[in-house]
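Q: Predict the bound structure with beta-D-galactopyranose.
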Amino acid sequence: MEIAAKMVKVRKMEMILLLILVIVVAATAANVTYDHRALVIDGKRKVLISGSIHYPRSTPEMWPELIQKSKDGGLDVIETYVFWSGHEPEKNKYNFEGRYDLVKFVKLAAKAGLYVHLRIGPYVCAEWNYGGFPVWLHFVPGIKFRTDNEPFKEEMQRFTTKIVDLMKQEKLYASQGGPIILSQIENEYGNIDSAYGAAAKSYIKWSASMALSLDTGVPWNMCQQADAPDPMINTCNGFYCDQFTPNSNNKPKMWTENWSGWFLGFGDPSPYRPVEDLAFAVARFYQRGGTFQNYYMYYGGTNFDRTSGGPLISTSYDYDAPIDEYGLLRQPKWGHLRDLHKAIKLCEDALIATDPTITSLGSNLEAAVYKTESGSCAAFLANVDTKSDATVTFNGKSYNLPAWSVSILPDCKNVAFNTAKINSATESTAFARQSLKPDGGSSAELGSQWSYIKEPIGISKADAFLKPGLLEQINTTADKSDYLWYSLRTDIKGDETFLDEGSKAVLHIESLGQVVYAFINGKLAGSGHGKQKISLDIPINLVTGTNTIDLLSVTVGLANYGAFFDLVGAGITGPVTLKSAKGGSSIDLASQQWTYQVGLKGEDTGLATVDSSEWVSKSPLPTKQPLIWYKTTFDAPSGSEPVAIDFTGTGKGIAWVNGQSIGRYWPTSIAGNGGCTESCDYRGSYRANKCLKNCGKPSQTLYHVPRSWLKPSGNILVLFEEMGGDPTQISFATKQTGSNLCLTVSQSHPPPVDTWTSDSKISNRNRTRPVLSLKCPISTQVISSIKFASFGTPKGTCGSFTQGHCNSSRSLSLVQKACIGLRSCNVEVSTRVFGEPCRGVVKSLAVEASCS
Ligand code: GAL
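A: Predicted complex:
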């Protein structure tokens, strides 16, 4: 009896608990819809700021900090693609571990209080190998990618369903109480769909209804898809999207990719996008009715392993993003955008209430006013002229608007922010070289600890096979490896007409890319590289009798963009001929019987990940010879700063640290000489090649090694060097947070946006004067010296400031007094503080300070 009564009690308790649980879930589940103005969450329109972080481009250990820095920068949403090739490397064999732990990533965003936009694709572009498609997909019988093709649609549906189910299972959709407020299907198909003819239309319709059928409970978007069927929201990608309008008045104006910089390619200079222009683009978007904007990328990260797309995308995916590849804030980019976000949020009530009323304030001058019935008012004043600054009159007040800038007035009166007036200091981050002690701390040189294994030249594996003619590379390797050997024996009698004197000839090779090494009788005779076409004429010496011609073709990331990108192909497709240097006679080699080997012997034996007895540590260490595996051990650089390996001295290859692939290295790939500018004018439309640096230098010498892959000592570095290099020249570096701060604030700058409080919009202090604020980025540091300070007309940039014709003699002592010994300080930029060094001139305060 007693037991039965207890049981009933327990049951009752269980029921109550269950009920509470149901209530809690129901209470936290959010209803996400949209209307003409915005995404609507639980009945309230939202102004949202989003940023892309692609989870496999960093480590799970880095995620919490990256997400926190995003939140601190004013983001509401983290946007990520889902990387099919990483999640299903072999058909039906899934991977959601480590860097591919999508669930963990989404949960971490939720934990930080951020929403998630999940761009499932599953085609993602993204400078990711094969656009994110696993290469096995190419071999599905009858398949045609991204069109109305049954085998493709079946696979696309299967993977999309898999992801949606996983998210549902983990209750990650907002409709279930999770952070995901939006999902994307396909990616920029509208850019290329005309190449797919009529089938494109039915494919896009099918994609939409397939996605909808998965019933996520939150809206879907398609980017760059003007004909996106209802209720899919068509969204904009680009450097500017203020002119964009969605395809229905019932859809909000959304920007899914605002390119914060651009990606780097091997052989290219480094693109950067000035923050004044980026902020201008964002402000213009919200000025013109936008309510959702995403930075692509907010943190770019690293293309580890063989994930970089291409061809020829670099291993770094830094993107000049607000958070740099190593996870450090890029200043003043991050700080200026943070201020911008704050200013936009101050306008939220007015922004969501109504469409803007747009009026002209003169040629290239525009005001947008958001005014609600309840009396809140926000205004955006723009000067879209690329050269002339302007003074405009708005509501009876006068405002200074630099060329190509927007001022944000959250109360329609006072300027909280101007996109061209930066209130955040430049912080110079720098790499500190670390001389690495070899493992065990012995005083020996790191180089003396290297061992090596020579990769055989030509065919060495049992699975090599014969085929007449030249094979396309991706179809042959299935991208299991970057490497494919094309090998041929040819008998020379000595009297052939294509032979020049001394049995010399020219080997002509044509390849679709990206690198070819030609070995004649076991010796490297020549090499070349190219994106999609290589044409080589290599002078060679043949011998009478049998000659071996071994061609090693190497891919550097499979194409990820464009119509039929999956079919562009790679490798030596010919012609391949032997000819006389004098012209005339030649013989065709292409149609002969070639021997093929997919991948390297060292890849099969797993030299990168498992130990081998074949490592040779006898000196001398062979250097500057092609096709050598190298190995050494090392202690981790001290401290906790991010680590990089400087590969200067080596040629090209792939590297692993403790079995983890840190990606392809290629420090001998040199950027072209043209098009670089040190100080790019932010005014005027940005394009990917507008602002470039690093011309004539290696595209990438430094390669990120995540801290979590290192232990204090006994770390193993393995590299496969293709070209020939000297690994003993490799050095390590740590990336230091900037200890040097520079900032120039003029009398016409708005006061810091932080002087606005969000609820009342009424300043908590006098908001009329600009302030120069400095803060040491590391909490234990204080401002230890003021290297430069001038209130007047200072000239130059950080590191090279000089006084102009006008300077307050009190500048240095006042700034020193206000700042030295403190982590942060504020100095009002006014004649009240500095006196009047020159009447009738707008003055600035420029300061360079250092922290220690
Ligand atoms: C877009 C694409 C992105 C990325 C970007 C360039 O067209 O949607 O995935 O490739 O270009 O970084």
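A: Residues 465-599 form a domain with the Jelly Rolls fold (CATH 2.60.120.260).
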